[in-house]
Design a protein that fits this description.
Layout (H helix, E strand, L loop, with lengths): L9 E10 L2 E11 L4 E5 L6 H8 L7 E6 L2 E2 L4 H10 E4 L11 H11 L5 H14 L15 H13 L5 E5 L7 H16 L3 E5 L3 H7 L2 E6 L2 E6 L1 H6 L4 H10 L1
Parallel strand pairs: 3-8, 3-9, 6-7, 7-8
Antiparallel strand pairs: 1-2, 1-4, 4-5, 9-10
């Protein structure tokens, strides 16, 4: 074993975020090492989505610092665009471009943002579609695919930018139950391949099996930060016990 001296992949230091008077992220401090899979749990309104959006700088923060792979996120400009490309994000709503084919959807950002050539972008897109199990649908349009398939395309599209980190914000919440597992399987594959992941989900089976770590948020704070085993069998806070009592 060689000594690892790399910076954490995600480092949030004393991050505060307000929406008006509402204090949505309270002194969030968090380090996610390279390759770790963190599942973020918590009741609705606890700040999970805002945390994801802050890490991706879709949402400006009021104080504190967020760094990705050792580089503090700048507020704007070219440096921001480059850093944002390092962070892939998958949302509940997949938002594929309806008038572009599946493979074109995956090629788009690398061509536009990374200035990758068409042929190379297509080759990479096909490899990624292979990886998420839908290469045979490449020339169809999003509406011709099921929700689960579309979400897998959305994952391939995020991966096409070669992100260092993947953020998932309730990626299976909008799916019919029978399509949830195929998306979770793709995510589990990514985790096994060593991707650093922050996953907001209500899929407790995924949290138990795939997570290295569980973060439980309530009212904008990290209330528990522990292993899945600990969290599910011996939650410490009343908030977590209450939460688990409602969902399990
Ligand atoms: P979660 O994802 O855990 O459900 P969110 O991060 O979406 O929580 O929201 C945290 C809190 O911030 C909630 O009270 C929500 O209503 C509020 N909020 C989220 N986005 C906005 C916004 N753009 N403007 C005002 N309030 C917001
Ligand atoms: Mg949310």
């Amino acid at each position: 074993m060689t000594a690892e001296v790399a910076a954490p992949m995600i480092k949030a230091s004393a991050v505060n975020k307000y929406f008006g008077d509402l204090h949505v992220l309270r002194e969030i401090t968090l380090e996610v090492p390279r390759g770790q899979v963190v599942v973020v749990l918590g009741p609705s309104g606890s700040g999970k989505s805002t945390l994801c959006r802050a890490i991706n700088r879709l949402e400006p923060i009021n104080s504190g610092e967020i760094a990705v792979d050792g580089v503090p996120l700048p507020a704007e400009g070219k440096a921001l665009a480059a850093l944002r490309a390092d962070v892939g994000m998958v949302f509940q709503s997949f938002n594929l471009f309806a008038h572009k084919t599946i493979v074109e959807n995956v090629m788009l950002a690398p061509v536009k943002v990374r200035k990758v050539g068409q042929a190379e972008a297509r080759k990479t897109a096909m490899e990624l579609l292979e990886r998420v199990g839908i290469a045979n649908q490449a020339d169809k349009y999003p509406a011709q695919l099921s929700g689960g398939q579309q979400q897998r395309v959305a994952i391939a599209r995020a991966l096409a930018m070669r992100p260092k980190v993947m953020l998932f914000d309730e990626p299976t919440s909008a799916l019919d139950p029978e399509m949830v597992q195929e998306v979770l399987d793709v995510m589990t594959g990514l985790a096994k391949d060593g991707m650093t992941m922050l996953v907001v989900t209500h899929e407790m089976g995924f949290a138990r099996r795939a997570a290295d770590r569980v973060i439980f948020m309530a009212d904008g704070e990290i209330v528990e930060d522990t292993t899945p085993e600990e969290f599910f069998t011996a939650p410490k806070s009343e908030r977590a016990k209450d939460f688990l009592g409602k969902i399990l």
